[in-house]
Structure formats: structure tokens, C-alpha cells
Amino acid sequence: MTTILGVPTVALYGQLMLGLVNGAFYAMLSLGLAVIFGMMNVINFAHGAQFMMGAFVAWMLLNWAGIGYWAALLLAPLAVGALGIVLERLMISKLYKLDHLYGLLLTFGLALVIEGTFRNFFGSSGLPYQIPHELQGAMNLGFMFLPNYRGWVIVASLALCLLTWFVIEKTKLGAYLRAAVERPELVRAFGVNVPRMITLTYGFGVGLAALAGVLAAPIYSVNPNMGSNLIIVVFAVVVIGGMGSILGSVVTGFGLGLIEGLTKVFWPEASATVIFIIMAIVLLVRPAGLFGRA
């Protein structure tokens, strides 16, 4: 059996693949957080709950309405994003001129309410969500077998992250979004409805979290705690990449997923804390994050 530093290559490749899958979810969730913070300066602690809602909406569509996975990829983000728009208009929009702490406390409270509501109706045990028939099985890469669904998650999340980065950084719409953060009065002079743009941006960020939840449903059991288990790590990813940095969220999300996978192979005891150790080092050396601006 081939080994690397005493570790079987099969185990190493397997953990790298799992690290890429985890990194895909880190990247998508931190991307949504970065979009919301960069546009609205709101730290959305409800992001994990909205991720969980995406998975539950997909489960309800399948079990209550007979609507399968592929349609849920579109319908669940739209439904959860629409709810996010309602929350932004009714609550979050009232806090834009206040300290960040108020937005953090409000969204943290919303997360507790949402998770408690789903726990009350569905319990704490996980609900299964079947992998779609088209993505069942695995492909032989020669050095390992790659489950088709996990490969799909990696490719889909990477494509979506790159598309979001391109729209925000390289298009006219993205220019308006970035200008509305720094010079909203100037953007209004061009006839752009800035409050509506901010609302739709929040809905888009929430929709990204819900889409990640749909992708995660066949891998993790659908349960009310699935978002809270991820959100602390995702916030660390955002801090390391740089608050509000789109590219930082994508690169750091996938990169830290791989580092976490390697740590599980070579130093399993540190796998649960390696991301936070990296965060502490980055904050000491570069407080704005690897890709952030002071």
C-alpha cells in the first residue's frame, strides 16, 4: 500500500475530498455573509439558520409536494430569500445607522427563534434526504473513487462562487452595488433605488445560504442544528479572508476546507481547532484579513 509520511494515500485522498466538500459549503456560506456585510455593514448571524431553512424547504417540497431535488435548487432559495427580504424590510433596515452590535444581536435572536421553531415542529433528530438518481454512485479516478454527488457539490459551488465574484467585481450592476456602499447619494443621482438594491442584495445573500442548504441536504441529515454547527467556522473563514471580500471568502473557504482535511489525516486532535488557530494568527499579523482592506 502506498503511503505518504506514513499515511495511506487512500485515506489522504479521501480526507482531501471531504475537505473540498466542506470547503465548498464554507465558501458558499461565507460568500453570502461577505455580500451582506459588504453591502449593508450587517453581521448576519442568522445565516446558519437560513442555511438550515434551505435544507428543510427542499425536504418539505419533496415529502409534502413531491417536488424533487432539481426544482428545489431553484424554489428553496427563492422562498427563503423572499422571507429574508421581509425580515430586512421589517427589522434589519431599522438598524443601518446604529452600531454593528445591534445588528449582530438582532440576527442572533432571529437565528434562535428560527431554530427553535423548526425544532418544535420537526424535533432534533435528522431527517433523510435522498441523493437524486442521476447523481448516485461513484466514478473511478484511478487513485480513488469519487462519489458523484460530492463531485457535483464541489463543481456547482465553485461555479456559483466564481459567477457571483464576476457579477460583483466585473459588471455594471456590481459597480452600482459597490458604489452604493461608499457613495449612495451619487448612485441615487443616476436614478437607482438604493434601498431596494440593498433589500435585494440581502435577499440574494440569504438565497445563497439556502442554496447551500439544499446542496447539503443529501450529505448531512436535515435537522434544526445543522446551521449552528457550521456558522461559527464560517465566521472564522470570513474573518480570515477579510470582512466583505468576495474573493477572500471563496479562496479562504476552499483553502481552509483542504487544510482541515489534511489536519484530520496528520494531526486529528487539532482538526477541530486548526481554523481558529489560523484566524488568531491572521488577526495578529493582518487584522483586516488576507484579502480585506483596512
Describe this structure in a few short sentences.
The protein is mainly alpha-helical and 294 residues long.
Describe the fold and architecture.
This protein has 294 residues and is mainly alpha-helical. It has one domain (6-124, 150-285): ABC transporter involved in vitamin B12 uptake, BtuC (Orthogonal Bundle), CATH 1.10.3470. It contains eleven helices and four strands. It has helices spanning 9-40, 47-65, 69-90, 100-122, 148-170, 172-182, 184-189, 194-216, 228-241, 246-266, 274-285, and strands at residues 3-4, 7-8, 138-140, 145-147. The strands form two sheets. A two-stranded antiparallel ribbon has the order 1-2. Strand 3 (138-140) and strand 4 (145-147) form a beta hairpin. The radius of gyration is 19 Å and the shape is globular. The chain starts with a strand and ends in a 9-residue tail after the last helix. The mean pLDDT is 87.
